[in-house]
Amino acid sequence: MRFTPRLLRPLMVLAILACGVAPRPLSAAAPARVVYLVGELPDEDLLTLTSAVAAREPAPVVLFDTPGSGDYLKGFLAAFRPERVVPVGTFADDTAERERRLGVSLAPALTWNAGSPGPLLDALFPQAERVVVCPSRPRGLLLQAACLAGAARAPLFVLRGQDREADELARRVADWRPEDVFAVGEAAPLCRKLKYAKVTALADEAAVSAEYLRRQLERGKVEALVVANPADAKTGVALARLAPWVALQRRGALLLTNAAGDNTAALVRAALKNADLRRAENLILVADLKAIPMEHRKNPAEGKDAEIEMEPLTPEGEEAFTFATGRLFSDDPGLVALALARQRLMAGGRGPRKAVVASDPGGGLPLLEMFSRHTARELQNRGYDTTAMFGEDVKADELRRAWPDADLFLWEGHYKTMVEEFKVPTWTEPLRPSLVFLQSCLALNPTEVKPLMQRGAVAVVGSSTRTYSGTGGAFSLAFFDATLYEDQSLGASLRQSKNFILAYSLLKQKRLGENAKLTGANVRSAWAFTLWGDPTLKLPLPDPPRDALPGVHHQVKGDLVSLVRPDEKYEQMKTEKHLARTWPNARLAGLVTKAGEDEDRHLVPLLFAEVRLTPPAAGRVPKLNSRVSANNYVFVWDGRRDCGYLLVVPPSRAHGELLFDVRWGE
After folding, report:
1. From residue 643, how far is each of 30, 264, 323, 636 by CA, in Å?
2. Rounded to 10 degrees, what is the CA torsion of 366, 371, 374, 379?
3. Axis-axis angle for helices 490-512, 469-486 (nearest 10)
4. In this structure, what are the phi and psi dihedrals at residue 532, rounded to the nearest 5 degrees?
5. Low-confidence stretches of the chain (pLDDT beneath 50)
6. CA angle, 319 then 322 then 327, to 5°
7. Angle at 592 between CA 301 and CA 656, to 5 degrees
8. Tell me, what's the pLDDT at 595?
9. What is the set of domains in the chain, with CATH numbers?
């Protein structure tokens, strides 16, 4: 698959640490904001380039000038302010037109004819201690070889079956005098003829992946499993070519599916048998919805949807959600790169951090509004300059004016209101690099998400199926509490909120048995909410105000877990049918009581903690004991991560510690 000027004319922007007039090699020590502007390139050259620059820290920025993202590159470059922009490859437009379109001056271009990208290799690798040589097919082998090249800080030399490429390889090896040449697959016979280097033959994907993993582990543990479909060009958008670059930047192991992409769960479970991968926190899917399909299960709550869509590896029954999962994809690969690039701008943003919350437009969802009001109050308590609109006060024109300045945006309400009445997908104002949470039925789909990614969103959370508004509001409150109080990444916040909803469904069953209502709706929400974006991303949080209230927190000392309730609660909050008074970082989920003849339903604050424990031996499972009534708490254990999720209905006394003894069973 080649990039073409008409369909996928990419503009790759690679922020490389370099300086000087000409492109400096990767060995250069002086940092600078240099951009490589890449036009039409075969996949082989794209992998050569991205594997080379991914070896640098901090990771470079990569952008594509595709039809869907091209209009937004000018804004990014203006904000990023590169010191030098070097075109690489061939372009459909001339230099003057490109400079006008992008608003930047361009350095002399690096160009070459079909075949080995000589000028690019010259610029990036004036010396090379190691070289990776790989045939262009099979594609999976090439993708793994790109990972190895990045980890080894080595040039990737791709054999394409062209005339004189053996001479070109021999000449470069003679110039580089590398210590090692990794000969991948069918490259081995040719490489054995090379002089000046030790040749290590790697016969297949497994051997290449093992060598890559060994080198990654030299720099620290593997943090992510990156999954892609090497045959994705046959079914949809060819995004697997970005997977090695993502894996290298996110300290990930690259896992490649079958051609149908339907063996993701089995592939990951097999990988977890490797002790070096068993504790990976993140699962990153670099694939569209055809290349790696969503899973479907029978709807556990009666409704219009017979089935619920969810990401692969969604657990069943009482199993904990174990991965911080996110999907990087778009029908326009330029938007994937643009979303990743905007993380750099988000981290470096100046001025107050702002949030916009729009809930229950038009009214009619009082329980949802209660949850949303608590989310807005939590954002304010943690330092966000928060604009919150509820019920009849949610006005399309005011929301449209407020949104572009927000670092995070939360919509909680009906899909039809958002799409048909407010016409949000048609809004065009550029956004800050931001998180968008769409807590609305059916909102997470490419039609609604693509305009948001174009305008400035770095990630979008939502559901592609129907959910109850109340359960969804409890979910979003839990998500933002994890982000605000526990410094969780987007993927980890999503995982924690899923486990909160799971624990709440189990608590209801424990307390009410067959009389528990809407348990299926809770499970459905835990399954359905999904992150389209980088799960490793942490939002840069503001400093809390001086008068911020402390939040609920927990401590682990040996085999004792304590949940600590602060002395002070928020002021009581009242909506049309509900009352609530909670501590900061408490949770709400619809558990209610009535106080005497009071007609209002009092929402009970819940305590929730993600608790890491140290088993005395592998396979041991903790059981918690406490003076708290057994009907008032549940504990969900994730044995893979040695991490549990404790949900408690606190006793009536206002504050203080709640203690739980940990006893280890088989």
Report:
1. 42, 24, 12, 9
2. -130
3. 130
4. -100, 95
5. 1-31
6. 125
7. 120
8. 56
9. 1-125 (no CATH), 127-219 (3.40.50.2300), 553-665 (no CATH)
- Which pLDDT tens digit goes with each residue over 562-582? 999 999 999 999 888 889 999
Q: Which amino acid is at 106?
A: L
CB atoms within 10 A of CB 362: 12
- In angstroms, the Cα distances linking 406 to 342, 361, 394, 453, 465 are 14, 19, 16, 14, 26
Radius of gyration for the chain, computed over Cα atoms and rounded to the nearest angstrom: 26
pLDDT in tens, 336-354: 988 998 998 998 887 899 9
Beta bridge partners of 573: 580
Residue 561: CB atoms within 10 Å: 24
| Per-residue CA distances from 127 to 15, 21, 36, 172, 187 (Å) | 21, 19, 20, 10, 21
Pairing of strands 434-439, 457-462: parallel
Distance CA 364, CA 310 (A): 28
Q: Write down the pLDDT at residue 32.
A: 63
The helix (run of H) or strand (run of E) holding residue 368 is: helix 366-381
Q: State the Cα–Cα distance between residues 540 and 354, nearest whole angstrom.
A: 11
Contacts for 477 with CB less than 8 Å, ≥ 6 apart: 371, 372, 374, 375, 378, 587, 588
Q: What one-letter code names the amino acid at 87?
A: P
Q: Any idea which residue has 């990614």 for tokens? A: 453
| DSSP H or E stretch at residue 338 | helix 333-347
Q: Which pair of tokens denotes residue 444?
A: 């997470």
Q: What is the pLDDT of residue 666?
A: 77
- Tokens in use for 650? 């606190």
> Closest Cα to residue 469, out of 528, 393, 521, 507?
521
173-to-60, 121, 129, 198, 527 alpha-carbon distances in Å: 27, 12, 10, 11, 52
Please enumerate in sequence order all residues whose Cβ is within 8 A of that of 662, keeping only pairs 6 or more positions apart, or say none: 559, 560, 561, 613, 622, 623, 624
Closest CA to 114 of 71, 66, 164: 164
Q: State pLDDT tens for residues 362-375.
A: 999 999 999 999 99
